[in-house]
């Protein structure tokens, strides 16, 4: 009986962690969308292609990291 109680507590903790992770990922997703529009702004402001490529690389790395975090 004690084991079942412990299992339920653990299950609750896991659910709580999953909810926190979901909200964190939601915030990160909003940040990425904001970043995406910033890159468009850079282009409009006449930034050099080299700077825009660098910004895009940072953006792509962030997107890759975000998609990897979904796996866990």
Give the arrangement of secondary structure elements:
Layout: H1 2-44, H2 49-71
General description of the model:
- With 72 residues, this protein is mainly α.
- It has one domain (2-71).
- It is 92% helix and 0% strand.
- It has 2 helices and no strands.
- The protein has helices spanning 2-44, 49-71.
- Helix 1 (2-44) packs antiparallel against helix 2.
- The protein is rod-shaped.
- The two termini are 30 Å apart.
- The relative contact order is 0.10.
- The mean pLDDT is 79.
From the structure above, extract its key features.
mainly alpha, 2 helices, 72 residues
- Uncertain ranges: none
How many β-strands, per DSSP?
A: 0
Question: What's the overall average pLDDT, rounded?
Answer: 79
Task: State the shape.
Answer: rod-shaped
Largest sheet: none
Rg over CA atoms: 19 Å
Strand content bin: under 5%
The N- to C-terminal Cα distance equals 30 Å
SS-derived structural category:
mainly alpha
Short overview:
It is built from 2 helices and no strands. With 72 residues, the chain is mainly α.
